[in-house]
Amino acid sequence: MNLPFFSPSDDPGPSFTHLLDRHGLSPDYAVGDHADRLEITHGTTVVAARYSDGVIIAGDRRATSGNLISHRTMQKVFRADRWSGVAIAGAAGPAIEMVKLFQLQLEHYEKVEGHSLSLEGKANQLSQMLRNHLPAAMQGMVVVPIFAGFDRRRSYGRLFAYDVTGGRYEEENYVASGSGSLHARTVVKLGHHDAMSRSEGVDLLIKALFTAADDDSATGGPDSMRGIYPTIATISGEGYVELDEQEISDRFTAVIADFAERS
């Protein structure tokens, strides 16, 4: 078989697929956005912020499939190990499986080595998992988590954001992901300060999720009738601690009352 030659005026360019198209050698497959034809369940808004003793991480409970509410009680905030947590946004199925594998890898490392992986190493491990997931993300099953933990070597909380390619970016004070992240991040940005206490931090994230739910239809707000409230956890020198639902309910009631007085 002789290789084709092209004159400078007829250069096919650097794209090999375009060259195949010109010679009728392209594979026979359907081209299109497969995500539009699949009922993919998506988690929506998660947010995290630093406070004086560590970090606080929170997420709403709603999952959507297009314009439908798929689940009202989806868990989006998970304990990765004793000193870290991960919150998921994006395609729910792959995201939950990724979290389970991430938890298993951290546990396996600790059992083999006799000590836990550094917080930096955990963040890098999650980055590698996202990079390996890129082919699925290109088909519409995008996963964009946030990672938070307490760095025992430096004695302070740290936050990490990711992109779909596995890019890892450490954030200084706060981070959000998901469809309502813009609204949630704005609230946290305006209310955050370096000496923020645990109580102030929890209330701030509650306000952030409440505002996101008010402006983003895919984000679920508090549902007192069904007893459904966002998941919130703190990670400090005491480890990963998930807040009791009753405490979250009481704080939401106070926040909503405060909003009502101002409106």
Describe this structure as you would to a colleague.
This protein is an alpha+beta fold and 263 residues long. It has a single domain (42-262), classed as Glutamine Phosphoribosylpyrophosphate, subunit 1, domain 1 (4-Layer Sandwich). 36% of the residues lie in helices and 24% in strands. It is built from seven helices and 14 strands. The protein has helices at 16-22, 92-113, 119-132, 134-137, 181-191, 198-215, 245-262, and strands at 42-43, 46-51, 54-59, 63-65, 68-71, 77-81, 84-87, 90-91, 146-151, 156-162, 168-171, 174-177, 231-236, 239-242. The strands form three sheets. Strands 12-2-3-13-14 form a five-stranded antiparallel β-sheet, covered by helices on one side. A five-stranded antiparallel β-sheet has the order 6-7-9-10-11. A hairpin with a 2-residue loop joins strand 2 and strand 3 (54-59). Helix 6 (198-215) packs across helix 7.
How many domain modules? 1
What Rg do the Cα atoms give?
22 Å
Overall shape: it is globular
The counted number of beta strands is: 14
Strand content: 15-25%
By CATH reckoning, the class would read: Alpha Beta
- The assembly state of the depicted protein chains is single chain
CATH architectural type: 4-Layer Sandwich
Largest sheet: 5 strands, antiparallel
The SSE string, one letter per element, is HEEEEEEEEHHHEEEEHHEEH
Number of helices: 7
Low-confidence stretches: 30-35
CATH topology: Glutamine Phosphoribosylpyrophosphate, subunit 1, domain 1
Mean pLDDT: 89
Question: Key terms for this structure?
Answer:
alpha+beta; 14 strands; Glutamine Phosphoribosylpyrophosphate, subunit 1, domain 1; about 25% strand; five-stranded antiparallel sheet; about 260 residues
